[in-house]
Amino acid sequence: MNGFVTRSLDEIRFWSRIMKEHSLFLRLGFRCEDTQLIQEANQFYSIFEQIEAKSHAFTANADPRQIEAFNAEVHNAASHIWVFKRKVLGLILSCKLPGANNFPLLVDHTSREANYFRNRLAELNSGQLEPIHDAIIDENVFFLKIMADHAKFIGHLLDPSERKLVDQAREFSHDFDQLLWQAQDLSSMRPQSQTGPLLSQFLDQNRVSVASLRDFKKTARDLIEACRIKSIIHPLLADHVYREAERFLEIIEMFESSLTRNAPPDLSDWH
Ligand SMILES: [Fe+2]
Ligand SMILES: [Fe+2]
């Protein structure tokens, strides 16, 4: 088993499905007359659908050189969808798409996820791996912002008459904004802040909040699927944000086990 191969395939399997779904969400938010944009979104959908299928066709025993080429190909696709998302953001912010239904923050958010995916692939291929004490802070800063955004999207896409759920979403938004500030404080105090006890407490606190947001998203997803609540949230979007919270939790747990297993930390899981 090759760590580079399994790690690459794991990233691509997860994020290519995410990119495919972003293409669908963007398309659903365009107006009927935006035929060019709709066509571009459809093209990205099929590109990432093919990448996803290809990633599942490879096994852990694949030739690392083949995976390196695949990573480069996917990196290229992720760069292109990033450019597309930033173009759409520019059109929305300059009021060229009045009446379209994608929030600017959502488009920006999906572009940040594309950028993250692209950077992970570049990192894997270059072998330039971030030390785990930096990865712990950087991954958390990235994902806490993602989680804070999700809470805001849910709050704004639920029907305003779902007062209780909207309140809950708002509380999560506040909670994650606070956690994000804390993470940025820890980041600014680097490298002195990167002690075992501080990093472990940081992960512990984030894990508790992410687990509770993940449960909220799961409930929302089930209610939306069963048509029990009023919203304009696509069931696939509800599932999508739930999966991203699960991903973050897995990353936190992986960091926690590397921290507790030994010192200095064993980097093999992360890399
Ligand atoms: Fe996403
Ligand atoms: Fe997201």
TrEMBL record:
InterPro entries, A to Z: CotB-like
Gene3D superfamilies documented for this protein: Protein of unknown function DUF2935
Name by which UniProt lists this protein: DUF2935 domain-containing protein
Organism: Paenibacillus soyae
